[in-house]
Amino acid sequence: MVHDLHDHGGHSLYTKVLADELSQRHKVAVFANRCERPADANWDSRHVRSWRGSALSTVNTFPVGLRAQAAALAAYDIRHTQGYCGGEPNVVTAHICVAAYLKSLEGISLRNRLSLQLMAAAESRFYRRYRGRLIAVSRKVANELREVYGVRREIRIIPHGVDAARFQSDQREGWRSAVRRDLSLADDAVVALYVGDLTKSHVYLKELCAAAPAVQLVVVTASRAYHWRAANVRILGPTSALERYYAAADAFVFPTTYDAFGMVVLEAMAAGLPVFSSDQAGAAELITPQNDGVVIPLREWVERTVAGLNDRTSLKETGRAAEQAAQRYEWSSVVSAVEQVYKEVMSNE
Questions:
Q1: Nearest-5° angle of CA 255, CA 256, CA 258?
Q2: What are the φ/ψ torsions at residue 297 (nearest 5 degrees)?
Q3: Distance CA 176, CA 181 (A)
Q4: What band does 31 get if pLDDT is binned at 50, 70 and 90?
Q5: What is the pLDDT of residues 250-289, one digit of tens each?
Q6: Dist. CA 284–CA 137, nearest whole Å
Q7: Which of these, 23, 87, 119, 165, could form a disulfide with 28 (CB 3.0-4.6 Å)?
Q8: Cβ contacts of residue 268 below 8 Å, gap of 6+?
Q9: Domain segments of the chain: what residues?
Q10: Which CATH number fits domain 164-328: 3.90.550.10, 3.40.50.2000, 3.40.190.10, 3.40.50.1820?
Q11: Measured distance CA(256)–CA(101) in Å, rounded
Q12: Among candidate residues 77, 101, 102, the one with its CA nearest the CA of residue 90
């Protein structure tokens, strides 16, 4: 059960991967409001009615839509939701702690703050009452559920995965040259890439650009706000060909103020890029500092990242180690770990 299902990021991609893989061995259905189901999928889909006026309205009305599907849901041994969705689940994967995310935000509108407060309250009530199996995508999320919502039950940590083959393509050198040419970037320039929401990173990215004018920053984002102009920055819209931009970069920068995980970190590692992450990303837990990436407190992030970007030899060595490390987190390992949780549920019922 998930609000939306597609294959371009976050909990939606996680759900699609599970559905695709598990439906090879089990009967699987996806209950969603919006669902991009491939024609050759082995799983079924069920439409869940909800009002999509805002994120808050979706969170509040999706459980009502699931209640209308109670008879269909009862036919399944495993009812797995992505966070708070309703539907009387016996497995839940926590992809975020909304209250912790809200605490990390500064300068948001009163309307957005109130909306997040209401969502956090609904999420808190759900986790206090929930008695089934609980998965978190990072230790960060698990700790937040315990500290902020008072969750006391066991939480299984199963990080997100990555399709390493997509980012390890033998076309990387060709992509590197083509993208740099399209963006008017010199072949010998140091290029840092950021992919994600600018709300959580723009302050530190702007400081990085000012502190390292010789470094070229490429930003790929769906954010319409927080754009800025500088000679060494190029801000691009979202793309389905992210692997081309990873190939064009020398490093990946991720000064997020909050990310429960951050799939782009694993993607960058799989593409052979050294990652300069803040310590506020769940995916930073997968980095071995000074070996396959760097994890830095935000107060030190700009200074230490500038120093790291100036060491080209270290960038290459760290990138090679990152590519090897990412192979441990293929999606197949995630599916196996989640399937094991399902088997434990079945053995106890």
A1: 155
A2: -60, 145
A3: 9
A4: very high
A5: 999 999 999 999 999 999 999 999 999 999 999 999 999 9
A6: 12
A7: 23
A8: 193, 195, 246, 249, 252, 254, 275, 322
A9: 4-161+331-347, 164-328
A10: 3.40.50.2000
A11: 11
A12: 77
Count of residues for the chain? 349
* Identical topology for domains 4-161+331-347 and 164-328: yes
Task: Say whether pLDDT at 5 is over 90.
Answer: yes
CB 214 within 8 A of CB 267: no
pLDDT of 53 above 80: yes
Class of domain 4-161+331-347: alpha beta
Cα–Cα dist 148/153, whole Å: 14
Q: What are the C-alpha distances in Å from 23 to residues 39, 43, 200? A: 14, 6, 36
Average pLDDT score over residue span 168-177: 90
Alpha helices in the chain (DSSP H): 10-22, 55-67, 70-73, 98-104, 110-129, 139-149, 164-167, 172-182, 202-211, 242-248, 263-270, 298-309, 312-326, 331-347
> Cα separation of 24 and 286, whole Å?
29
C-alpha to C-alpha distance for 94 and 104, rounded to whole angstroms = 18
**If you average pLDDT over every residue of the chain, what do you get?**
95
At position 282, the amino acid (one-letter code) is: G
Nearest to 335 by CA among 19, 103, 57: 19
Using only C-alpha atoms, what is the Rg of the chain?
21
Q: What is the pTM of this model?
A: 0.94
Q: Which residues contact 254 (CB under 8 A, 6 or more apart)?
A: 194, 196, 201, 262, 264, 265, 268, 275, 276, 277, 278, 281
Residue 170 pLDDT class (50, 70, 90 cuts): confident
> What is the rounded CA–CA span in Å between residue 201 and residue 287?
19
